[in-house]
């Protein structure tokens, strides 16, 4: 009897979802509009989800445009005269285009146009070109931006959810980045 109970207990434990599986967020229908630095889903319908090894292979093969959507705080308006403003440095995957602030859940019209124009430049006008979209690990902004690219008709979208955090953990090269000039908002 004891063996049957122990065997049943072991089977139940092995069949139960892991804590990570229990806490893995589901893929929402729309965009994430708050709490952007939180665990992300394992999927994005219509997109390929990349591991660091897969992203590296694509990068080394130079077969895709890499797009960083990390936000960048704007220079505060009305700084007192003589105040030195130093922008926070950003290192991204070499060769990436940085489209800051395009991963929010809702974009003002000017930023939406900015994102569409950035995608078109990155893809060289080819909506079938491979686009790899990333930010940081556990950041919904890259998920939102990849979903938005799919909505714009891009058919070969890859989402790299570990972003520069995963890239740096793998000791892959990064380079100092400058964002594409964003429109006045």
3D structure, described in words:
The chain has 185 residues and is of the alpha/beta class. The chain has a domain at 44-73 and 89-185: Oxidized Rhodanese, domain 1 (3-Layer(aba) Sandwich). 34% of the residues lie in helices and 11% in strands. The chain has six helices and seven strands. The strands form two sheets. Strands 1-6-5-2-4 form a five-stranded parallel β-sheet, with helices on both faces. The chain starts with a helix and ends in a 9-residue tail after the last strand. Residues 4-22 have low confidence and may be disordered.
Structural class based on helices, strands and sheet pairing: alpha/beta
Give the CA-based shape.
Answer: globular
Q: Main beta sheet: strand number and arrangement?
A: 5 strands, parallel
The total of helices stands at 6
The helix/strand series, from N terminus to C terminus, equals HHEHEEEHEHEHE
Give the name of the CATH architecture of the domain at 44-73 and 89-185: 3-Layer(aba) Sandwich
- Gyration radius from CA atoms, angstroms: 20 Å
Count every beta strand, where a strand is a DSSP E run of 2 or more residues: 7
Q: Determine the fraction of residues in helical runs and give it as a percent range.
A: 25-40%
CATH homologous superfamily placement of the domain at 44-73 and 89-185:
Rhodanese-like domain
Low-confidence stretches: 4-22
Tell me the β content.
Answer: 5-15%
Text of the CATH class of the domain at 44-73 and 89-185: Alpha Beta
Largest beta sheet: strand ordering: 1-6-5-2-4
**CATH topology description of the domain at 44-73 and 89-185:** Oxidized Rhodanese, domain 1
């Amino acid at each position: 009897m004891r063996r049957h109970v122990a065997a049943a207990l072991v089977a139940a434990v092995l069949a139960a979802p892991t804590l990570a599986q229990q806490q893995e967020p589901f893929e929402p229908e729309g965009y994430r509009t708050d709490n952007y630095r939180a665990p992300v889903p394992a999927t994005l319908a219509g997109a390929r989800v990349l591991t660091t090894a897969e992203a590296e292979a694509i990068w080394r093969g130079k077969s895709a445009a890499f797009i960083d959507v990390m936000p960048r705080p704007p220079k505060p308006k009305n700084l007192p005269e003589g105040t030195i403003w130093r922008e926070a440095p950003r290192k991204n995957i070499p060769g990436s285009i940085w489209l800051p602030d395009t991963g929010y859940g809702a974009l003002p019209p000017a930023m939406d146009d900015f994102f569409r124009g950035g995608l078109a430049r990155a893809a060289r006008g080819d909506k079938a070109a491979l686009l790899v979209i990333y930010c940081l690990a556990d950041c919904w902004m890259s998920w939102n931006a990849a979903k938005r690219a799919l909505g714009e008709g891009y058919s070969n979208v890859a989402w790299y959810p570990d972003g520069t955090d995963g890239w740096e953990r793998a000791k892959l090269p990064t380079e100092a980045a400058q964002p594409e000039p964003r429109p006045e908002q």
